[in-house]
Amino acid sequence: MTDLDNLIQTLALVPHPEGGYYKETYRSTDSIQLASPFDGARNYSTCIYYLLTSETFSAFHRIEQDEIWHFYQGATIDLHLIHPDGRHELIEIGHDLGMGQVPQYVVPAGVWFAAEVAALDAHALVGCTVSPGFDFKDFELANRADLNATFPDHSEVISRLTRC
């Protein structure tokens, strides 16, 4: 068994629809009733383990909430954001603060984002906290053609980090 297989098994991770592996580790027991853009109640907060490898990526998607990424171990993650105004931002999530990496980053609600491991033959383990809590009703996976049509200046990264 490889170290990666052991990590997946030990943390009981399963494939995530956007790519990589995950396990929900926390969902608050209390919830709050929310107005638009949400459809009903959401838990106050949720948290997952999220594992990416250099063989997979987190495809461009967006959610209705802020999402906080917390770096735990492994290789640097390149987090790509495309803001509603069309600006592309690259955030390096990792432990090398001297090289401009950050161990924690907040993706603002409604921003398209995708992630990939920066090194070959590597993996990275992070945590993602969402508040109000994550619900798949708030999740939108990007369509490559639509995202390219909206943000043609970023077609290379969009084409590389979308699946359909």
Structure description:
There is one protein chain. By secondary structure, this protein is mainly beta. It has one domain (about 5-30, about 40-160): Jelly Rolls. It has 3 helices and 13 strands. It has helices at about 5-10, 145-150, 155-160; strands at about 15, 20-25, 30-35, 40-45, 45-55, 55-65, 65-75, 75-80, 90-95, 105, 110-115, 125-130, 140. The strands form 3 sheets. Strands 1-2-5-12-7-10 form a 6-stranded antiparallel beta sheet, with no helix packed on it. The protein has a 5-stranded antiparallel beta sheet with strand order 9-8-11-6-13, with no helix packed on it. The chain has a two-stranded antiparallel ribbon with strand order 3-4. It is globular and about 45 Å long. The N and C termini lie far apart (about 30 Å).
Which structural traits does this protein have?
164 residues; mainly beta; Jelly Rolls; six-stranded antiparallel β-sheet; five-stranded antiparallel β-sheet; 13% helix; 46% strand; globular; YML079W-like; DUF985 domain-containing protein; Cupin_DUF985
Mean pLDDT: 96
Largest sheet data: 6 strands, antiparallel
CATH H-level homologous superfamily name: Jelly Rolls
Counting H and I runs of at least 4 residues, what is the number of helices?
A: 3
Q: Give the H and E element order.
A: HEEEEEEEEEEEEEHH
Number of strands: 13
Distance between the termini: 32 Å
Shape summary: globular
CATH architecture: Sandwich
- For the largest beta sheet, what order do the strands appear in spatially? 1-2-5-12-7-10
Radius of gyration: 16 Å
Approximately how much beta-strand content do the residues carry? over 45%
Work out the count of structural domains: 1
CATH topology-level fold name: Jelly Rolls
Question: Which secondary-structure class do the elements indicate?
Answer: mainly beta
Kindly state the percentage of residues in helix.
10-25%
Low-confidence regions? none
